[in-house]
Specification:
Length: about 170
């Protein structure tokens, strides 16, 4: 399999609709970050990239494993992991909506993979599913279901039953 850089020439693909090119792309993801997690400096990821020629464009599909590090949302210790990302992009000479451009018969595969990697970074990292936080006795473990469930104090539950439908529903 051919190994390519961050951009790939698609001259032949554009002229042979229905044709497919499978290459191995190596992308530098180091330093990409969100407010909750980052990809360590120097991270290079290799991924198999499939390019399919369609009407007026190229469809890219790939799958990459992205290493990340970030602060556990419960105990605030640094933690890390690997997230698998499915990438699916459409390139066109005249891109619309979410499509990416084909410029001089080349496509920026590295940019697409990097963007997909950043979007996949965890928004609420956990060092382990049963992390109990820094002070387990004072802050009992909260699971995702606990956090999304509405906690109703029984005293207020009784009051809310007295409400009429037309009552203020700002709560
Ligand atoms: Zn933790």
């Amino acid at each position: 399999m051919t190994t390519v850089g961050p951009t790939i020439g698609v001259h032949d693909l554009l002229r042979r609709r229905g044709s497919r090119l499978v290459v191995n792309a190596t992308v530098d993801l180091g330093g990409a970050e969100t407010s909750t997690a980052s990809i360590p400096d120097g991270t290079e990821v290799s991924a198999e990239v499939t390019l399919d020629s369609i009407n007026d464009g190229i469809v890219l599909t790939s799958e990459l494993d992205v290493p990340w590090s970030g602060e556990c949302r419960r105990c605030l210790e640094m933690t890390s992991g690997i997230v698998r990302v499915d990438v699916h992009e459409v390139y066109r000479v005249d891109p619309v909506d979410e499509m990416l451009p084909i410029v001089n018969e080349e496509i920026d595969v590295g940019g697409a993979l990097r963007d997909a990697a950043v979007l996949s970074l965890p928004i609420a990292p956990l060092c382990s599913d049963d992390c109990r936080g820094p002070l387990p006795s004072e802050f009992p473990v909260m699971t995702a279901t606990d956090e999304s469930a509405e906690v109703v104090d029984p005293r207020w539950a009784a009051l809310s039953e007295l409400r009429f439908d037309s009552a203020d529903d700002s709560d």
